[in-house]
């Protein structure tokens, strides 16, 4: 104990006698390391903007869609909006949403899937739309795989399942498509590496080892065997199209690109984008192993006049409080 006290006393004398520049530099380094430590343990709360608001799909004008629940191996409950395809050879979309807002904010887009008679399984990640638990990369990927396996167990042919990864959810979608034989993969405003995006915006001051949430899609995209459709807005400032292009270039499977002119990060939720790109890709993927390609109308029109903003992610409006909560 005396030796420890003497050591502390000697260190304090050395600190007092050190030049001011050395002391200030040491304090700055100590503050940086303390900040890194805080970020390491709190990054999930900083990264994910959860929205627990739970609204039934029928209250958003999404027809023939039910709200179902799926238990996870670690004791959490996932909420899923589920609709069956009206033709056994039509696509079944497994939708993995991005950050911010719950499923009801994507209702306008889901109605286009439903109007096409497709199947839909929209997974609410943990902390969103009534799903319990806290989101993380590990949990999100495991949950997506569990939903895919549950669909296959229910009789949905894997070749019909087209995984749709939106924004942050694109990282989950890539890992799912690398792990399971999906029919197709749609990447909506994706990124090459979430970790590198954050580091580039912080002047690369954050070390790689700091990140527990990495979403390094660029490392997994080469394992994807399914056809790929990349959709990006050329005015996207949240995730620049160059990030998506780098991921697209690294893909080794059959791939298609759709650059939406004039669209920002949220401008892809349109009927035109659906009719011109998504619909033909998804139905082509589903028909590869089908008895015959379904004959469909050339275009699909949203059957419900949307109440929400045309850019739902940017809207500050809330669903009226008198909507039925189920």
Q: How do the strands and helices of this protein lay out in sequence?
A:
Blueprint: H1 2-17, H2 20-47, E1 66-71, E2 77-83, E3 92-96, H3 107-115, E4 119-124, H4 137-153, E5 161-166, H5 168-179, E6 184-188, H6 194-201, H7 217-220, E7 228-233, H8 241-250, E8 255-260, H9 271-287
Parallel strand pairs: 3-4, 3-5, 5-6, 6-7, 7-8
Antiparallel strand pairs: 1-2, 2-4
Commentary on this structure:
With 326 residues, this protein is an alpha/beta fold. 37% of the residues lie in helices and 14% in strands. It has nine helices and eight strands. Strands 1-2-4-3-5-6-7-8 form an eight-stranded mixed sheet, sandwiched between helices. 40% of the residues are buried.
List keywords for this structure.
14% strand, 326 residues, disordered C terminus, single chain, alpha/beta
The secondary structure category is: alpha/beta
Give a count of the beta strands, DSSP E runs of length 2 or more: 8
Q: What amount of the residues lies in strands?
A: 5-15%
How is the biggest beta sheet arranged? 8 strands, mixed
Tell me the series of helices and strands, N- to C-terminal. HHEEEHEHEHEHHEHEH
Q: What value does the average pLDDT take? A: 82
What is the molecular shape? elongated
- The unreliable regions are 305-326
Tell me the distance between the termini. Answer: 64 Å
Radius of gyration: 23 Å
Count of runs of 4 or more consecutive helical residues: 9
């Amino acid at each position: 104990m005396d030796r420890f006290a003497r050591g502390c006393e000697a260190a304090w004398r050395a600190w007092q006698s050190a030049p001011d520049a050395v002391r200030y530099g040491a304090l700055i380094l100590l503050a940086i390391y303390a900040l890194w430590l805080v970020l390491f343990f709190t990054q999930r709360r900083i990264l994910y903007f959860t929205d627990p608001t739970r609204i039934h799909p029928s209250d958003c004008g999404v027809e023939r869609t039910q709200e179902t629940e799926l238990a996870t191996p670690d004791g959490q409950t996932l909420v899923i909006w589920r609709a069956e395809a009206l033709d056994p050879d039509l696509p079944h979309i497994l939708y993995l949403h991005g950050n911010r807002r719950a499923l009801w904010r994507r209702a306008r887009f889901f109605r286009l899937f439903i109007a096409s008679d497709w199947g839909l399984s929209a997974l609410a990640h943990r902390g969103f739309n009534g799903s319990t638990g806290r989101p993380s990369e590990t949990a999100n990927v495991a949950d997506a795989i569990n939903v895919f396996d549950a669909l296959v167990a229910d009789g949905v042919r894997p070749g019909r399942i087209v995984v749709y990864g939106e924004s942050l959810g694109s990282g989950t979608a890539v890992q799912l498509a690398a792990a399971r034989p999906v029919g197709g993969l749609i990447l909506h405003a994706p990124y090459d590496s979430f970790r590198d995006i954050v580091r580039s915006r912080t002047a690369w001051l954050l070390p790689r080892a700091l990140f527990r949430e990495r979403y390094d899609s660029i490392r997994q995209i080469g394992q994807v065997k399914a056809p790929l459709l990349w959709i990006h807005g050329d005015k996207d400032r949240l995730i620049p199209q160059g990030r998506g292009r780098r991921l697209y270039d690294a893909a080794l499977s059959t791939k298609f690109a759709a650059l939406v002119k004039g669209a920002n990060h949220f401008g892809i939720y349109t009927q035109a984008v659906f009719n011109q790109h998504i619909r033909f890709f998804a139905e082509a993927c589903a028909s590869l192993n089908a008895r015959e390609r379904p004959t469909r109308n050339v275009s699909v029109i949203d059957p419900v006049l949307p109440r929400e903003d045309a850019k739902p992610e940017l809207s500050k409006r809330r669903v009226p409080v008198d909507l039925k909560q189920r």
